[in-house]
Amino acid sequence: MADYQTPLRDINFVLFELLDAEAHYKAIPAYQDISRDLMTAVIEEAAKFADNVLAPLYQVGDREGCTWTPEGVKTPTGFKEAYQQYVENGWPAMSAPVEMGGQGLPHSFGGVVNNEIVGTANWPWGMYPGLSHGAKVTLETHGTEELISQYLPKMIEGSWTGTMCLTEAHCGTDLGLLRTKADPNPDGSYRLSGTKIFISAGDHDMAENIIHIVLARLPDAPAGTKGISLFLVPKFKVNEDGSIGDRNNVNCGSIEHKMGINGSATCVLNFEEAQGFLLGEPNKGLPAMFTFMNTARIGTAIQGLCTAERAFQGALEYARERLQMRSLSGPKNPDAEADPIIVHPNVRRMLLTQKAFAEGGRAFIYWLGTLLDIAHADMGEQSEACEDLLSLLTPIAKAFLTETGLEAANYGVQIFGGHGYIKEWGMEQIVRDGRIATIYEGTTGIQSIDLLGRKVLGSGGELLKNYTKIVHLFCKEHAGNEAMQEFIEPLQAMNKEIGELTMQIGAAAMENPEEAGAASVDYLMYSGYFVLAHMWAKMALLAHSKLEEGTSEESFYAAKIKTARFYYQRLLPRTAMHKQAMLSGAENLMSMAEENFKF
User: Fold this and answer.
1) CATH superfamily, with its number, for domain 289-444
2) pTM, whole model, 2 decimals?
3) Helix axes 514-549, 554-566, angle to 10 degrees
4) How confident is the model at residue 576 (pLDDT cuts 50, 70, 90)?
5) Candidate list 140, 309, 428, 441, residue with the active-site label
6) What is the rounded distance in angstroms from the CA atom of residue 567 to the CA atom of residue 169?
7) Where exactly are the structural domains of the chain?
């Protein structure tokens, strides 16, 4: 398998040139001391750790997997030692508050380091500290002062990790059906009983304690989602002085034997009157859990980016070296017995698709991170506007980037040919590991219904208008730039078209609610291509500007423009198919009677 190398040049391009991260952070009171020099130093150190420590463990984790024992889950060779190094270097504390022992760096910057750089090198390993981030934010947001002071510092330090415990065997996305119960104790704590499945990092040997964030029902809870409460349940009880006490009654009953991410322990957890503590208000657990889930959804979107980037790197190196057949326009190297496969148009089509999705996805995700910074910065109307944009764009990012990441991974296997299907080359692992990203934290179908039903139609189109206004102003500002017309004109047309499509679907859904469900996935994919078109237009504009100024990196910026052109000419036309499909209506889906599905 090709050695993974952190794409430092493109990370720097998006972070410092496209988004001007230094100016962005200085505009936020809490981050005014953040400098480019500091960020560059952190990124370079993270890259060394990712490239030299985590990447070599990627195939080890897949090959060995995790092992269940009565004493607890054992992680693959090298995982525990890598995590100890990760903690010693202070990476878990990057984005945590200084007053709690953290480094106070922005969450968006933490996402670059702890999600993308770590995740692309070794996504299964990165899930252990990755799940902790959402647990920390949930505890910080909804915990009492006592719980925060008792649990959060150790989680920030990294010696304790965290999980999210939602799913049960009889209910996946429909959490209103969950049965785990929580009975009150005289001391104010609760006894939790029930079984949770698919719990990533639910048990392992990498940290001293694991803090579970668990959904459960109180005895007098109303039925459905309105009767769900949120609890903190530690693997080991914690004494008043902060030391680890007796083992709590939560145990890993088994670990799942999965298609991929084998280095990450996916556990069945049994809670048998385990001691837990209420987070937030009774019966308000689902809104509180969305603190965790929204963080996790953006994190999962990054997995799509990571999948595309890793597949692209491996496929590009192979395509440069693999000799097979001759170029259609004649031998490129007459002295060699064949040409490298990168000369063939179809191989270039696949490579450029991977590149367009990876680099476009990076711009999209990093921009979302800046919105998240402002949304959490208590900056009045500006924060509210960013919160609204995040509400619209998060389901698009989660679903679209994971779907296109999986497409990029499949192209990686295809470029390798038969070797791509063989484990030792590593490409098929990227497909297997990336496949889950389209499912967890809400499937593509769930994200699509959330986008079209709740966010767009549910807001009367206002959330969509917030974004289309941004695109309209961008197009208007650069309408006179002749070099940009190949991007501005189609982007402008799409900006108008998505509004028209939304009105058509909304009108149809007023007559028949099934119309929204039937159109939703195509609507989301159309929206994803639209957002990435906006990102690529912005990158092309910047690249044109750099070339006009004169630069020693002419090839880098020229490649940006050519990739933008490929995206607009080869990938953006897919929206025509999605448009036709979403407007075809629900009849072609719902007219089929149940008996017609029997074979």
Assistant:
1) Butyryl-CoA Dehydrogenase, subunit A, domain 3 (1.20.140.10)
2) 0.96
3) 150
4) very high
5) 441
6) 41
7) 289-444, 451-589
